[in-house]
Q: What sequence folds into this?
RNA sequence: GCGGGAGUGCCGGAGCGGUCAAACGGGACAGGUUUAGGACCUGUUAGCUUAGUGCUUACGAAGGUUCGAAUCCUUUCUCCCGCACCA
């Protein structure tokens, strides 16, 4: 077998594609448009890695596929070239980020071209180009105008290694997203924000329309975190303090309040008496709380103040707690320990009362059977009562089936000693007291009956039964707690006039009453925060603002854009732009007085939030883009990228689209209709590929050794593209082998006759493969392509089918298919040809082939068997088939295949040779056979 | 804790109500070819059985729905990923 000269072929076709501008497109086409987009790469110095090779190959396959299907496909590429790594390299190696970036890009481009990706290079976009980031600045000014961009002093996440602040989305487990070992600190700084929360609702609702993986949609929903609830006003010292809750139905169970330790108005609540204690508490949690990724212990301290319960007017103590978020809701919560796990933990720790106000239906009945020596275990098991624990003194913890509750009551009334009691918990805690005279009293525990129960209990056992004692007991024994402490909905108890209401009704009712009293209203809350865009770094888009002592923060006029990055700055000591004095000092655009430029730059996610639009009109120097062009190409029909971008990039890009739409520039709501997330390429040992582990496989090296087509084919053959997979050298070799066979077959191609069977198989394959590609099931499509090849590799097929086959393979292996397509006599590029059409499919014929295959299998099996058992070689094969199937069995080709004499008979052929009556074994679709 | 996904042969992985002992690859084994190795070709690869078309177990575990389940439902175990004190 000849080895393919990949390098030569690759070079040849790269040049042809370039010379013919094969993949350059314009909006002046009659074909329908289709926008395929890969997330543009950050050009790092290390070059393209296998992960890149994989994603972009997926994109290229899809772009080529759509192109062949007759779409006007926009498949652009660019570089997300602003960003921290370039700057950090600058610090480390001493090069300027610009140089570093230029080198990286050069390196990238070479590799990208080698992979055979069919980009429209004429639309290349680089975000570090002032002609690009000029429009970042322009959008910023527009946002400022519309009140979307604003500046405020805020507690921000600070990473000591980045020497910059981070967006909320960039904080991972309390650490920096790029530096896992760098704890994020809280600093208070004046920073620029984008009011993404204005679009929270739309960002949430828009998800329904998108053809995205469920996982991605769910993650975004979760990130936006909309929750419906009620704002309830608690009065503290006559002042109103609203809090947010999703469970107003538990309002009557509030036993204390907790305010966040980071609350900005915390000290207004703390009394002078408690001040010292609170302060030392604050100090303590500052030093301990930070790194805990596990749930941290709930801790707190009494503030000294009390809040007024909006319904009962009762005084509720306020605690300062470490577990309440300052920036969610209002930074204070009403604590309902019976129906919130965190509140319960806190209540237990600080011995605060717990009041159950929601009762669940249909939960098992539990009882603690004290004393009751006359009741033996058999009595209980007879009633199907489960004894879960027995104490030394004969007490039993039991679970009673709901329907046996009456029987249980009867049993204990009969057998309980006079002058004793039993309590159990069904929907409520029920006490059965059996007096000395035999009278039985049944009392349900609530606030009113508490005193009476207390009295009776002390009469009976001589010591006081109090609620606090029960709670202590509960805490120690954990027996009833799961029935009382729960977060479920149910019916209200212990809630005065709301008793008996369902949670849902109670929510409405209580909200209504609060609203009437002006002490509350229904409201919504989001987890989503405004986007903090200020970064104290150099290699980003300068924020176009000039500070003036007289005029304040003045936007740079549009005509003065772009505000270019100064070249001469000092790296490594704080914010580099601070060191560019001649750049920093400028005139105030308003009063022409002394002005000072904003030295912060924008988060680089700003660039990727709209780059896809610039591709539609990349060289426009007058506008951000031509509206007509942009609206012709967009929205993106198929977006492809990593799962790590779901909560950052993909939220921001949607936000930007909505803002630009509101500016009147765009006509759509959602920028990316379909989104595909690829899996991660891991090393063959299942670990991440990394230099330190020494398990990295370099795309470029692989290309040199096996060819780009081999690499591309192998990458999609590993498994489903959206699942992670491990690198496997064998699959690479297998792919290479296959391509060699294909190359051999077609490079020496002589057209055969048209064949119905091959047509049929081809048509079926086209149908299935098209579907697979459409759904990104490339591993399956490749298998079908291989099977298709297997089916004809020993015969001559006609030119039409040959071309169809090459086109199917082309999306995966563009180079050799171009080469072979040319060898078939085509002058035009296969890249710009047409996807094969599905012709008529004869399912019957396919079945007939299947049955032929099965028969061949049978024959092979028996040949082996005879050889093994009798050590005889078979020389003649007789096949018996249904009369209508005879035509499917061509004895000549079978003779050739087995290199033995083959005779085919219809089962009803009276002249057939059949000494053992094997014809009787024949069934429709399966032949009978006899060998000798 | 919450949310998502997955558990199939020696391995990677198809199948997602009957056509399944399970595509396709890899590995292993046997045979052919070859000076040998490699490469290539042919076949076998749950168990039993019969010269194949038969039976029995199998699709993490246990139940259920159905004439029929790897496929649907319930419970449970394990693993992976994302979010995480969001009131």
A:
């Amino acid at each position: 077998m000849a080895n393919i000269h990949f390098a030569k072929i690759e070079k040849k076709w790269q040049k042809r594609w370039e010379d013919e501008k094969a993949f350059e497109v314009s909006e002046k086409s009659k074909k329908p448009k289709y926008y395929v987009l890969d997330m543009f790469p950050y050009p790092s110095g290390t070059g393209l890695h296998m992960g890149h090779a994989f994603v972009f190959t997926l994109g290229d396959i899809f772009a080529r596929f759509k192109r062949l299907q007759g779409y006007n496909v926009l498949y652009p590429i660019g570089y997300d070239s602003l960003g921290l790594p370039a700057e950090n390299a600058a610090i480390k190696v001493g090069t300027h980020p610009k140089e570093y970036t230029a080198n990286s890009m050069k390196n990238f481009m070479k590799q990208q071209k080698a992979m055979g990706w069919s980009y429209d290079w004429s639309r290349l976009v680089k975000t570090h180009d002032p002609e690009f980031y000029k429009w970042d600045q322009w959008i910023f000014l527009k946002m400022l105008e519309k009140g979307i961009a604003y500046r405020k002093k805020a507690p921000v996440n600070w990473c000591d290694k980045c020497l910059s602040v981070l967006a909320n989305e960039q904080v991972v487990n309390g650490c920096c997203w790029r530096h896992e070992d760098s704890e994020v600190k809280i600093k208070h700084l004046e920073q620029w924000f984008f009011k993404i929360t204005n679009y929270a609702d739309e960002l949430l609702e828009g998800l329904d329309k998108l053809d995205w993986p469920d996982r991605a949609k769910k993650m975004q929903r979760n990130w936006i975190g909309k929750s419906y609830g009620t704002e309830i006003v608690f009065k503290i010292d006559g002042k109103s303090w609203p809090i947010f809750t999703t469970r107003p139905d538990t309002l009557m169970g509030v036993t204390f309040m907790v305010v966040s330790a980071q609350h900005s108005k915390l000290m207004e609540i703390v009394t002078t008496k408690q001040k010292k204690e609170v302060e030392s508490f604050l100090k303590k949690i500052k030093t301990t709380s930070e790194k805990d990724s596990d749930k941290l212990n709930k801790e707190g301290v009494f503030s000294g103040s009390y809040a007024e319960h909006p319904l009962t007017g009762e005084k509720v103590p306020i605690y300062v707690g470490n577990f309440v978020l300052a920036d969610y809701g209002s930074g204070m919560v009403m604590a309902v320990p019976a129906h919130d796990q965190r509140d319960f933990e806190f209540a237990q720790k600080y011995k605060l009362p717990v009041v159950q106000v929601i009762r669940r239906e249909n939960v098992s009945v539990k009882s603690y059977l004290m004393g009751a020596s006359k009741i033996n275990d058999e009595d209980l098991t007879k009633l199907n009562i489960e004894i879960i624990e027995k104490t030394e003194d004969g007490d039993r913890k039991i679970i009673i089936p709901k329907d046996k509750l009456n029987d249980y009551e009867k049993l204990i009334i009969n057998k309980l000693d006079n002058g004793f009691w039993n309590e159990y918990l069904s929907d409520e805690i029920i006490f059965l007291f059996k007096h000395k005279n035999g009278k039985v009293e049944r009392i349900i525990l609530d606030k009113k009956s508490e005193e009476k129960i207390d009295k009776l209990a002390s009469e009976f056992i001589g010591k006081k039964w109090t609620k606090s004692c029960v709670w202590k007991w509960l805490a120690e024994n954990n027996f009833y707690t799961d029935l009382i402490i729960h977060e479920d909905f149910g019916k209200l108890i212990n809630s005065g006039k709301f008793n008996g209401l369902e949670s849902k009704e109670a929510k409405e009712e209580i909200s209504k009453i609060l609203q009437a009293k002006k002490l509350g209203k229904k409201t919504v809350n989001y987890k989503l925060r405004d986007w903090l865009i200020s970064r104290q770094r150099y290699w980003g888009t300068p924020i176009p603002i000039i500070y003036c002592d007289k005029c304040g923060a003045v936007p740079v006029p549009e005509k003065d854009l772009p505000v270019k990055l100064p070249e001469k700055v000092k790296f490594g000591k704080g914010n580099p732009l601070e060191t560019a004095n001649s750049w920093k000092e400028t005139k105030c655009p308003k009063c022409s007085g002394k002005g000072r430029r904003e030295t912060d730059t924008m988060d680089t996610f700003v660039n990727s939030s709209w780059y896809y639009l610039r591709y539609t009109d990349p060289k426009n120097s007058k506008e951000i883009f031509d509206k007509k062009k942009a609206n012709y190409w967009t929205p993106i029909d198929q977006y492809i990228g990593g799962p790590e971008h779901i909560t950052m990039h993909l939220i921001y890009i949607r936000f930007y689209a909505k803002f630009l739409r509101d500016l009147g520039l765009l006509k759509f709501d959602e920028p990316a209709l379909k989104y595909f997330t690829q899996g991660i390429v891991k090393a063959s040992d299942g670990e991440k590929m990394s230099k330190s582990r020494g398990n990295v496989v370099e795309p470029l090296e692989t290309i040199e050794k096996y060819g780009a087509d081999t690499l591309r084919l192998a990458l999609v053959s590993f498994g489903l593209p959206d699942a992670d997979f491990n690198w496997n050298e064998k699959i690479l070799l297998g792919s290479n082998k296959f391509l060699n066979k294909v190359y051999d077959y077609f490079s020496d191609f002589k057209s055969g006759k048209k064949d119905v069977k091959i047509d049929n198989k081809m048509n079926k394959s086209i149908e299935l493969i098209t579907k697979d590609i459409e759904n990104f099931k490339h591993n399956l499509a490749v298998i079908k392509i291989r099977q298709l090849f297997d089916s004809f590799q020993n015969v001559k097929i006609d030119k039409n089918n040959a071309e169809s086959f090459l086109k199917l393979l082309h999306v995966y292996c563009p180079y050799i298919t171009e080469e072979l397509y040319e060898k078939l006599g085509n002058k035009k590029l296969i890249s710009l040809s047409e996807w094969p059409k599905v012709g008529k499919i004869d399912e019957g014929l396919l079945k007939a082939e299947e049955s032929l295959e099965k028969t061949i299998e049978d024959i092979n099996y028996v040949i082996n068997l005879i050889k093994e058992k009798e050590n005889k070689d078979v020389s003649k094969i007789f096949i018996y088939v249904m009369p209508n199937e005879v035509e499917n069995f061509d004895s000549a080709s079978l003779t050739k295949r087995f290199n033995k004499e083959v005779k085919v008979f219809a089962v009803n052929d009276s002249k057939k040779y059949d000494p053992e009556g094997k014809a009787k074994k024949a069934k429709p679709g399966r032949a009978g056979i006899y060998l000798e």
Q: What stands out?
A: The longest helix of chain A spans residues 843-870.
